[in-house]
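Input.
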Amino acid sequence: MHPLDFGILFVYLTAVVLFGAYFGKSQRTIQDYFVSGKNLPWWAIMGSIVATETSTVTFISVPGFAYGNNLTFLQLVMGYMIGRLAVSILFIPAYFKGQLLTVYQLLGERFGSGVKRLASGVFLLTRSLADGFRLFATGLVLAAVLRAMPETDAIATAWLPGIDPTYSILAASVLVIGLATMAYTYFGGMTAVVWTDVTQLTVYTTGAVIAAVVLLGQIPGGWSEVREVAGAAGRFQLFDFTPTLTRSYTFWSGVIGGAFLTTATHGTDQLMVQRYFCTKDPRQARKALLWSGVVVFAQFVLFLFIGVMLFVYYTQHAPGEIAEFTRDGRLLTDRIFPYFIVRHLPIGVVGLVVAAIFAAAMSTLSSSLNSSSAAAVNDFYLPATAGAHSDRHYLTVSRMMTAVFGVVQMIVAVAAIWLSSRVVDEVLGIASFTNGLILGVFFLGTFTVRVGQTAAFAGILGGASVMLAVKLGTAVSWQWYVLIGSLVTFAVGWAASFISPAAPAEESALRRG
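Output.
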């Protein structure tokens, strides 16, 4: 990278931190810190949803998927659209019946504080582990970009002699991203998160578009060559109707499994639902959610076509470079786009696109930190103290919890450097089936009357048991996990209600609601 590129990256990181500090001046209560006073415009919330849904792994992996496969990833995105419709109909109206700060407060009102704390605790554990490893994966991408520069290893060795440069560069990448994200989230709360997300969405989309234009310009035959070569290689295949549960990215696993996955992540996960709380009414929340689906679809089309063009460029015009992202005969598709960025983009553009990689990572991580703090304070600390302290006290605790979860995620990310890839994959897999359990409990609260706290606990236990068996003992694709987990949790909870029905007080409270 040229000094100009490093300058662009430095200016971007500094501006983001100062941005967060600016918004922190107007905060007086935890309502300001977590839901921005419910006065953010729907289009900003829409941009924040899209940015949070797009991590660095997406920015890099989706082009890699298209390079090595085709466009069948879009079948999953079609499921995302259906899931958004389900959330807008089933859940969003309930979010505006009271003054909620976390989605798990709804479970507390329906089933009692025990279920609320369990769901919130599962969220906190899953977020800390999964996003810690996501931070690690982001560090891998940044480290790969940095290591493409020959001087990086020498600098790392001079600063930390005796330590493998691979580890020190990766650890430094993790800490830089983690500290910058924690700083602006700590000061600015959800207002900074949302407006920074909008900025980051602009940055990484611009970076991707510029990279796509430069890439297409380096293919002599232009789009006609891309269409001819990629078409002959099957890279434009969109649908796969294979009837199997063991393969991902088929029409069935994408559309059905993706719909359930999005219903869970966008309807019952604090990470996403907290954004709806920042709007003034259900109409604004629905608008933000549904339009985010349109933008996400267009965004994935862009990333996939970048992957198709990379396939044409490297197989037809730079086959000698393929060895740079091949190890032991295996193509490392996640390294293809970073390699192209460093080797083939012009000075200045490299800095912008690396900043885009940062932006995609920070938008997801900042949301994770703020939503984790919201769950910890509102579902645990506030009830434990009976709201006896001042607004300033709870605001201070909220910021402290943001810092705590930031440190936890950085510790997880640094620890992951020395763990095997299999351990990383297993921990990341936690989110795939815990989302199904929580969605199942929300289904119990939405569609049943007789299910009480005991039956809900039984449903969670039954769903967790079945999902562990599916995860560890079968080859079923992860894209079916939320569907299986939610339906089993619902079925077991409903069946258990015939043995232990809801108490009369629970039923009457539900009917009144």
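The first strand starts at residue 326 and ends at 327.
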